[in-house]
C-alpha cells in the first residue's frame, strides 16, 4: 500500500486529486504540516527532490518522488480508479488531458480576474466564457447517457475533471449560466457528494452571484 | 506551408506562465 | 493487438506520438488518407465520434474512439512503453504532463511568432525562452545519470517529450542556444535516431540559424 507525504498549500484543487484518490485506495497520504509555500519549495533540499519547485509534490515513505498532480493521483490510486482495461485506462487519460487542456486554461482566464489574481483583459475574459461553455457542452453530451465519465464507477477521470471544475462552480458559474448543463450539474453534484470527495474538499458552495471583476 | 496553416487553427496556452506566476504569487501571499 | 485509423494533418508532432508508439508495439495504425483538416473534422459524422473536433483522433477497427494525442499513444502502446510498475507508470505520466504543461506552452510561444503563426509579443516571446531554458535544464539534470527518462529502456515518456521538443530543435534551438544542454542533446539525438522514430518523423534537421521573427 502506498504511503507518503504531499507537499502543497491549503485548498489546492490540484492536491485534492491525489488526496481524494487516496481516500478511495486507502493509500496513507499525509499533507506536510511544516510546508510554507514560497519558502519550503525554494530550499535546496526541496529542489533536489523536486527540481521544478512546483506543488503538489509527493514523496513516498520509501523515498520515491513524484511531481505533477495527475501523476501523483495516479500513483496513490488503485486499479479501479485507473481503469480496468487498456481502453478504459486510455479513456481515463483522455478526460484527464481534457481537464488540463480544455477546462483549466479557460477556468484560469475567467476566474483569476474575478479573484483579482490577474489583470482583467476583456477579450481574453469573454473568450474564456465561450471556451468554458464548449467544454461543459462536451461533458453534458457525454453524460446524457452515463453516470460517470468512464465505465460504471468513479474513476480518476471523474476526480480530476471535478477538481478542475471546482473554481468555476464556486466562483463564476451562477445558476443562470450553469442552468443548461443539466447532465454535467447532475454528475458534478454526485461526485462532490461522495464521502471520499467531501472528506477532502469539504462542502462545495455553488456560486450564487458572480463577484464583480476588480478592474 | 500546410503545417503552418494547420497549426494556426490549433489552440495552445501561449501565456500559461503568466497564469502560473500570478497563481503562485497569490497563494504565496495567502500562505505567508 | 490494437488496430485502427488515425485522423490527422501531415507532420503533426502530436500524431507522431501514437504512430511511433505503434511502431514499438506493432499495433496496426493507419493514417486516414481522405482526411482534410478543417473540413472532415467539422462534419456531423466526425463530431459524433469526436465531439471536440480536434486531431489527432483515433478509431479502432472494433469501433473504439479516442481523442487526445497522449491517450491515443497510450492505447496503441504496449506495457514496455507504458511503464512496468505502478511507480514507473506514474513517472511516465509525470514526464508526459511535463511535456504538455512545461514544454508545449513555451515552445508554441517561441516558435509560432518565428513561423508567423501568431502575433509577436516581446514580453511573452522573451519569457518563453526562459521557460524553455528551465525545462531543458530540468531534463539535462535528470539525464546526467540516465539514458532514458524512465527506467532503462525507451518509454512513452521519451517519445512524448521528444515529439514535443521537435519544433524547438528544428526551428529555434540554434547551436549556440542548445550548447549547454549536453545530456538533453545526447538523449534527444538517441531517441530521434531509433528506427521506430525515424520511420515516422523522418530525418530531424537541427536548427542552424533562427529565422527572424516576422514582426
From TrEMBL, chains A, C:
List, alphabetically, the GO terms of the cellular component aspect: cytoplasm; nucleus
Q: Which GO terms describe its molecular function?
A: translation elongation factor activity
Q: Does the keyword RNA-binding apply?
A: no
**Limits of the GST N-terminal domain:** 2-84
- Superkingdom field: Eukaryota
Key words, A-Z: Elongation factor, Protein biosynthesis
List, for all copies, the residue spans of the domain called GST C-terminal.
Answer: 85-213
Protein's UniProt keywords contain Protein biosynthesis: yes
Name-wise, this protein is Elongation factor 1-gamma
According to its UniProt entry, this protein's organism is Agrilus planipennis (Emerald ash borer)
Q: What is the lineage of its organism?
A: Eukaryota, Metazoa, Ecdysozoa, Arthropoda, Hexapoda
Within the intact protein, the region shown is 1 to 215 of 430
Amino acid at each position: 500500500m502506498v504511503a507518503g507525504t504531499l507537499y502543497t498549500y491549503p485548498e489546492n484543487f490540484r492536491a485534492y486529486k491525489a488526496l481524494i484518490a487516496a481516500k478511495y485506495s486507502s493509500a496513507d497520504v499525509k499533507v506536510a504540516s511544516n510546508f510554507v509555500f514560497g519558502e519550503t519549495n525554494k530550499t535546496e533540499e526541496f529542489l533536489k527532490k523536486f527540481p521544478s519547485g512546483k506543488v503538489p509534490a509527493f514523496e513516498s515513505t520509501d523515498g520515491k518522488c513524484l511531481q505533477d498532480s495527475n501523476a501523483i493521483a495516479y500513483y496513490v490510486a488503485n486499479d479501479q480508479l485507473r481503469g480496468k482495461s487498456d481502453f478504459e485506462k486510455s479513456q481515463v487519460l483522455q478526460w484527464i488531458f481534457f481537464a488540463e487542456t480544455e477546462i483549466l486554461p479557460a477556468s484560469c482566464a475567467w476566474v483569476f480576474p474575478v479573484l483579482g489574481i490577474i489583470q482583467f483583459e476583456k477579450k481574453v475574459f469573454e473568450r474564456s466564457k465561450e471556451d468554458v461553455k464548449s467544454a461543459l457542452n462536451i461533458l453534458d453530451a457525454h453524460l446524457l447517457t452515463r453516470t460517470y465519465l468512464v465505465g460504471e464507477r468513479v474513476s480518476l477521470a471523474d476526480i480530476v475533471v471535478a477538481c478542475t471544475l471546482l473554481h468555476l462552480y464556486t466562483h463564476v458559474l451562477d445558476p443562470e449560466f450553469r442552468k443548461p448543463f443539466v447532465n454535467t450539474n447532475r454528475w458534478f453534484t454526485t461526485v462532490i457528494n461522495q464521502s471520499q470527495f467531501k472528506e477532502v474538499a469539504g462542502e462545495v458552495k455553488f456560486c450564487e452571484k458572480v463577484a464583480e471583476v476588480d478592474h | 506551408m500546410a503545417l503552418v496553416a494547420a497549426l494556426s487553427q490549433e489552440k495552445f496556452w501561449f501565456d500559461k506562465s503568466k497564469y502560473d506566476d500570478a497563481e503562485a504569487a497569490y497563494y504565496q501571499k495567502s500562505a505567508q
